[in-house]
Amino acid sequence: MLTEAVGLRFGYTEEERILDGLDLEVRRGDVRILGGESGKGKSTLLRLLIGLEKPIPDITGSVAGQVFLFGEDIWDVPGVRVRELRRRTGYVFQNNALLSNMSVLENISVPLSYHTDLPDEEIVRTSRRWIDNLLLTGHEDKRPAHLSLGMQRRAAMARAMAMSPELLFLDEPTAGLDAKNSEIMLSLIGNLRALSNVAILMVTHDLGSARFLGGRIHLLLDGKLRPARTYQDLLQSPDPRERELVHDDQETRFG
């Protein structure tokens, strides 16, 4: 098991539970899509799973359950161990989180320089390979401000892949992109799987991406995670809220 949530309950107050008794498993080779209404906890769930948000379980009921990363309870191990486990993952933030004073090449090199003992020439070689894989060749010396949003997102993805992660977290990788660049992004994500067999857990408003990537969709509604299903299953769902989310996705893609 790469990551697992068991009975996860989370809220900043007892009255406002963002996640309410949620269970999730991601195994090797999985592609899981997290969909649902905006602002209802999908990105929070990603941060909890990777240990970027690590609340202390309390007695009020606002926080409970367990979160495992590579089989270890990240709420019950020292912070240094959480950081060690996190190195086996990649994370692409919706805002890309690139360092503005560094070039594309330098941004991608950061985790390799910080977390490995590789010689400089090997770090550059690895970084350039991911620049090529993410269609950024010719832009490696540019700073983020001189890149389009799509290129910034691809640079962030190259940086996330530089450490050869076993599990890749993607937070709205197509957000803000037009239809053409969204298709490019999904194609590149599919290529990442072919190149590395990385498992993917992706938050997205674009539920149709599950068809392209061969993944299954979990909908987060009312703090609970619905069982994983295909896009076609959701089209035929008897639940009007589920059908509405798929309908909204189709309007976004084809309207």
The mean pLDDT is: 89
Fraction of residues in helices?
Answer: 25-40%
Residue fraction in strands: 15-25%
Structural class: alpha/beta
Strand order of the largest sheet: 6-7-8-3-9-10
Order of helices and strands: EEEHEEHEHHHEHEHEEHH
Note the total helix count: 9
Key terms for this structure?
255 residues, alpha/beta, 6-stranded mixed sheet, 9 helices, 10 strands, 22% strand, globular
Describe it for me?
- With 255 residues, this protein is α/β, with parallel strands linked by helices.
- The chain contains 9 helices and 10 strands.
- Strands 6-7-8-3-9-10 form a 6-stranded mixed sheet, sandwiched between helices.
- Helix 3 packs across helix 4 and helix 4 packs across helix 5.
Structure, briefly:
It contains nine helices and ten strands.
Secondary structure layout plus pairing:
Layout (H helix, E strand, L loop, with lengths): L2 E9 L5 E10 L4 E6 L5 H9 L12 E7 L2 E2 L5 H8 L2 E4 L11 H12 L4 H14 L15 H13 L5 E5 L7 H18 L2 E5 L5 H5 L2 E6 L2 E2 L5 H5 L4 H15 L1
Parallel strand pairs: 3-8, 3-9, 6-7, 7-8
Antiparallel strand pairs: 1-2, 1-4, 4-5, 9-10
